[in-house]
Design brief:
Blueprint (H helix, E strand, L loop, with lengths): L10 E5 L3 H12 L3 E5 L13 E4 L3 H11 L8 E5 L4 H7 L8 E7 L20 E6 L5 H13 L4 E4 L2 H23 L13 H7 L6 H10 L1 H24 L2 H24 L4
Helix pairs in contact: 5-8, 8-9
Length: 276
């Protein structure tokens, strides 16, 4: 889909030139949009003509930046934050005066284990899911234009949900994975792993190199959802530990079968899910 097919969104301003911001910048240029890239301290002049503003800053900087630039967004513009936790963002922006512009929370389900503009890719979002968490008064045509834009830069589907549901699911599908990878990589045996590891070890520890500032902020911002997910995971791990310690083969088989069955159901549901 080219720029001429996307309706109201013609000019895109990307704020924050890291991995995700850089990838949106490159993907938007590739898709034919007039695109400008801004750093955190840049002035508001470049926002005057932007139909879509993507705020790709570190989590603690997002709300202050939007508040300080609220008067600079043009009437009819849409502002989307790109942050892995949504409830605090929407709560803290609920009282910001919006003079004809619309705010929508956003979270692209894409990334890499490396950071920085130099690692950004125009095709990072190909086939990925984009999650949107709008305010209740968000116009339907705004969401339609956003769906078209995100499809045009490669996303395979757009999911519209509540901030609360987003945060619960991301605690499970993303944040728990990062906690497990980091914990796994901290074992003393990691120093001897060369020559003893295959794909499973590499896959499970790939994201252990997460940025400590960004991810600690995300964990704490989402602690209401993350703590219950961690508690349930620790309980399941304790079940495996106890079965191994007791030499209980039947219990181990039961736990393995339960996990395998759950994964097969998830694969089937994913294959059957509608796209778009």
């Amino acid at each position: 889909m080219r720029r001429s097919d996307v309706g109201a969104i013609r000019t895109v301003a990307v704020v924050g030139m890291g991995l995700i911001g850089g990838s949106f910048y490159k993907a938007s240029l590739k898709a034919g949009y007039r695109t400008v890239g801004l750093h955190h301290g840049d002035g508001p002049a470049a926002l005057a003509d932007a139909d879509l503003v993507l705020v790709c800053l570190p989590p603690p900087a997002i709300v202050p930046w939007i508040r300080s630039h609220a008067a600079a967004f043009r009437r009819g513009a849409t502002v989307v934050d790109i942050c892995g936790v949504k409830s605090p963002i929407l709560r803290d922006l609920a009282d910001v005066p919006r003079d004809g512009w619309t705010f929508v929370g956003g979270h692209p389900m894409a990334g890499r284990e490396v950071a920085g503009f130099e690692n950004s890719l125009a095709d990072l979002f190909v086939g990925a899911s984009m999650i949107l968490t709008p305010f209740a008064d968000c116009p339907g045509e705004t969401l339609a234009a956003l769906r078209d834009y995100f499809a045009s830069v490669g996303f395979g589907m757009t999911v519209v949900t509540t901030p609360e549901k987003h945060d619960e699911m991301i605690a499970f599908t993303s944040q728990l994975c990062h906690v497990v990878a980091t914990s796994y990589a901290r074992d003393d045996l990691v120093k001897d792993s060369v020559g003893f590891s295959a794909g499973s070890y590499a896959d499970m520890t790939r994201i252990a190199t997460q940025n400590e500032n960004d991810w600690s902020a995300l964990y704490l911002a989402n602690r209401a959802s993350l703590v219950p997910v961690l508690d349930r995971f620790i309980e399941r791990m304790a079940g495996f530990r106890d079965a191994v310690a007791a030499g209980d083969a039947d219990e181990l088989k039961r736990l393995i079968v339960e996990g395998a069955s759950a994964k097969r159901r998830e694969i089937a549901a994913r294959a059957a899910a509608p796209k778009g």
